[in-house]
Structures are given as structure tokens and as C-alpha cells.
Amino acid sequence: MADTTERKNDGSTLHTWRFVRLGGFDQVRVETGADLLALDYLDQKLWAALSCPTHGLEFDEQTLQLIDTDGDGRIRVPEIIAATKWAASGLKNPDDLIRGAKALPLTAIDDSHPEGMEILSSAKQILKNLGKSDVTEITVDDTADTVKIFSETKFNGDGIIPPDSADDDATREVIKDIIVCLGSEEDRSGLPGVSQEKVDKFFTEAQAYADWWKKAEDDAISVLPYGDATGDAAAVFHAVRAKVDDYFIRCRLVEFDQGSAGALNPSKEAYEALSLKDLSASKEDIAAFPLASIDAGKPLPLKEGINPAWAGAVAKLDSEIVRPLLGEKDNLDPNDWEDISSRFSAYESWLSKKEGAAVEPLGLERVREILTNGSRETLAALIEKDKALAPEANAVSSVDRLIRYYRDLYTLLNNFVSFRDFYTPGKKAIFQAGTLYLDARSCDLCVKVSDVGKHSGLAQLSRTYLAYCDCTRKGTDKNLTIAAAFTNGNSDNLRVGRNGVFYDRQGRDWDATIVKMIQHPISVRQAFWSPYKRIAQLISEQVAKISAAREKELQTTVSKAVTETPKETKAGQASTGQAFDIAKFAGIFAAIGLAIGAIGTAIASMVTGFLELVWWQMPVAAFGLLFVISGPSMIVAYLKLRKRNLGPILDASGWAVNTRAMINIAFGTSLTRTAELPPGSHRSMKDPFARKKRSWKVYLLLLGVLVAAGVLWQKGCDREWWKQSGVKEKKVQVVDKSVPAQSPGQLLPSKK
Q: How many Å separate Cα 293 from the centre of its chain?
């Protein structure tokens, strides 16, 4: 632990800091209110982090949003300092922030300045509104329910007035009309209401709508030929306009060319095709025909001879447009139609310039009533009355802010200024999302991940074995992704697709599946056994390859013997099969003997050399052999494990870690715990399903045979035995060429 004193430029002492060495770096100890007030003098190079996100943490998000004054979704050093100073100024004793209690005592609020007095008064009013006048402390739950706090008040200082804020029915109806036309805004009591901005917009729209109608009324003859019914008449006119124009154009074409009448009227083939259909379901096909039969100079009939699909529309044209304007008529000639069309042109021009459409649902009469009954001034007065209570109502927000800082700020400092919570046994940092249980281990270092690919690209620099898991909960559509650090045990059974269970900080269980892994050394123990495992794996793979090759060769031979028909030997001829070669067979056994002898000699040499050592040299030799095999792997793993760093894992999650937060071997063991039997447990070693082990005597006998074979081979006994066993056969079959051959006459004795 070390003490550091911050000084001003003139050398005067500001504050004496205390540091502790944790995780391989010096971490400041924030333990008093004086430490909190001096944070702005602490060099930022000594902070554990410089920024963190406001989401994905095991921390109250609303508190983080209050600290995040610029609303960029990140907490930075200046915002931490500002929040700390504000919270300390609201309390009589800044040391109270170190408590981190859930309930704020009213006596702890500093009412020696105006803002503190306002906060204390508001806190008491909140408790009174909630029916807790006799309670001496206030919690976040009390301030969170603003609907209940303001439920009994008409005005709450937010500048939004619901209909019930008005004292008379007429004003209440106007507020409801504004909501119908422009929508509502929710005030602090949770009721729909309107603000001054909404009121101003409504009356602007209402005035524009009234002025627009005034223009039509000033030129009613041309703009409103049918008076108040002009709108309905225009709708009827537009419904048949295109079809009537089509009819008169066709008639003019026939007048221009009499031969075109047949082509412009429906053909016989069209009727024949139509006759094969269900006419009740063929209205669209019938509607495509002209309104009436086409002929030169023929007027449009209004009573008879109308296309059945258009009969209703033409009847409305006659009753609502033709009769009021032209009187009773059986036919409509082109001139009459042009007169009708011209009368709607001015109306259409006026309609295209419509203003104040937002208030149109109220109707012109209601709009003009609202504009003239003085309701605008009444609403403005109500809104001003509501805003006058803004300071008192806003104090509720200040109370909520102070309570949250009182409860949460110290925890945030121990995860931002330092990583004290992370390195303290029994506690969890705000970035630890929960615990993953998988492969008989529990992993406490689990962080939430939004993008596995992006996170893993940076997190691999942490030199930590990470398993990314997709987590889901049955019966819900919620899912999350975590990165779990394995810092103890081994990786033999860790692979993509393995399943486990993840418990979040609220105790909820999630089904977890590994989807990606970043592989790094996990422990020195794993490194010790890794060479032997690699050798065993290599031997297993080679044996499997050889077995597969021999099996394939055998299958090929058997298949060839079965499918190929052997040739019959000719009668009287001797078999062409090869004779048994005893020398070749003996050579095979000789090679096997040599191989066994070589292995036995090697083992015998090792055993003999080991037994010739002095007793104290034997364990040294055994340790040296183990070191030669496992030492390099253990050294490399140890050096890598010492470099495990928390920083890249958090940086990949949006943090700005300001130091190398190391995860050494001892600390890593505490982050990932392996399965252990509870203390005092009893365990039976008898397993009826365990693999039967060979007796040690069998292995000892095999070792003795190999050693004996090696000794005999070394002394040349095998060569002497082989020489003696092969000489007799050579005497029968081999002639010594070094002795000169004698003639038959020399074999007889000479006669004297």
C-alpha cells in the first residue's frame, strides 16, 4: 500500500491518496468523503477506466442515464466527477456516500442551501402524497412512481394540462378536441394532456381552416355550385368522370368514321367469352364495356340502355348533379357535360389549396366556435399556472437523483476509478454478467457480448481462453450472448456445440451453447500433461491409420478371391504353386526376434543404468526426465498465463480500460472453480462398471521377458543358437567348393 499526495501548482497540499497493488497495477482506495471530493485532483492516468457504456452492465441503467448528462450512451471521467460533487453537496456528510444504502434518511439531506432545502421539502411532500408522512427515510421505489405522486394534483409543473385540469366543461371539451386532432402528451401524473406548443399549433390550424372556407364562401357561385352539398356532388362527379369522357370520345370517333362503330362497341367474341363466365362474379369485365352503345352524335342516356355495372353511378349523376343544375332530362349531350365539368373546375382548384386539414374532423361550425369563445386564452392561463409549480415538481427529480447516487455511486466508483470489486473475493464487478456452469466448472468472469465477431477480434489479445455462448430461456423470446473466461482446469472437453447453464445476476437460468472459442493456455497443470497427451494422440492416430489400411487390404484380397474364378488345372500337369520356403519363414522370425531384442536391450540399458545410480541420484534422474518432456510446455504456459489481461475483454465490450488489469494464476483459479467433493463427504472406490485392470504381475513378467531377451541378444546367444540350428540343413544341400573334386577313379584303392 502506498500514499500519494496531490499538490497544487504552488506546491500546497490538496489530498493524500492511498493506493493498493491489485491485479498487477496500483489502484486508488476511495474510502472517505474527502476522497470523493478530491477525485477531480486525481491524475486520470491513475484511473482504472476512462469510460464505460451505459448498457450491458449489472447496474441500474436509470442511474447511468442520470450521470450521462450529454446522452451519448457513455460515462466519462468528467461526468463521474460532476455526479460525485453534486451528490456530496446534497448531503450533510459526504462520508454517507460510502455506505451505499438503499434508503436515504431525510436527516442526511443538507438543507443549509436553497437546493438542499428544496430537495428536503420535496422528499417530505412525496412521502405525504404516498401516505407515508411518518416515514423518516425515502427510497428509489418511492420516487419512481411519479404517477402516484402526482395523482392527486391538477398541476405538477410539467407544462402539460389534461382535460381534468380545467374548471369548466367548455374548456375540457376544447382540450379533448385538440387531443383528437393533434394527439396527446403524457404529463407526470400519467394522464393525456396538451402543452402550449400543441395549443398554438391547434389554433393556427383552426384559423387556417376557417380562412380557407371563407374564400369559398366569398365566391360561392363558382366555387360551391351546389352549396354545402358541393363536396358530395364532386365525389359523384369524379366517380363517373372518366367513363363519361370515354363515352363521348367514342361517339365522336364514330361520327368521324362510321366504320369504327363496330370496333368501338363490344364485339361478339367479347360477349361470347363473357357468356361462359359467372356474370355475378364478372362485374369488372362488364364495367370495362362503354356506358352505353356507341353511335355517331348519340347523347348519353340517363334512364335506359345503361351498362348494368354503371347503372347506380349514372343514377346518382342524374339525381345529384344533372337535375339540380339542368332539371329533368332523359339524356345528357356533350355540351351539358362540358357545362357540368366546368362548374367543378373552380371547386377543384379551391380544394387543392386546402389549409388546416388537421382540424377538419371537427367540422367548420365547431372550429369557428372554438376560435371565438376565448378558449385559447383560457388554456394559456392554465398552462402558465401549471408551469409556476415547476421548481417544486422538478425537485422530485432531484430527490430521485440524490437517492440513486446515494445508493449506486460508490459501487460505480469501485468499478471505474478502480477495479476493487473485481479483485475483492466474494464480490462481483458490474461487468460480470453471471456464472456459467459447464464441463464440471463454474466460470465467474462472464461478460455480455453484442457482436461475437467484433468482440473476439480484440478479446484474443487478452491471452485468456474464452468461450462464446448463445443463451436462451425456454418460454421467452429473450436471448443474450456471453463471453466466458476459463482460467482453471483444461480444455480437453471444450468444443463448439457443448451445452451448459448460465445463471445471470438475478438468478435466472439460461440454456448456454458454445458457438466460438479463443484458445489460450488455461493452467500449468494442463501444460504438464499436454506432451504425453499429444504423443498418445499421435500413436492412436497412427494405429488407426495402419488398422484402416490393413482392413482395406484384407477386404480387397477377400473380394478378389470371391469374385475371380480360379482357373482349373490341366489334367496330368503338376500344380504350379510355390513350395514352402523355410528359409524365408525363418528370416521373418529372425527379424521379429531382432526387433524384440532391440526393444529389450533399450529397456535393459535404461533399467541397468538407472539401477547403477546411487539411491539419491534416482529421483533426480526421474525428475530430469520429466522436466525434459514437460518442462518446455510448462514454461511457455506459465509465461503466457502471467500475461492474461482483463483490458482487451472489456475494451471489446465498449470500455476504455486505462491499465493492464492482470489475471494471474492464483486469481484465475478463483475465477473458474473446478468440481470438488464437499468437506466430510464419504466416497466408495468400488466401481462395478470400471474397466478391469491387468494384474501388476503380468506387466512385471512381460518386462522381465523383454529384459532377458535384451541381455541374451547383447551377449550374442541368439546368433549362436541360430548358427547351431541351421548348420545341419546346409550340410545336406550345400557343397563346399573350396575342396577340389575327385574323379571316380580316385575313389578306389590302388593295387600294388
A: 68
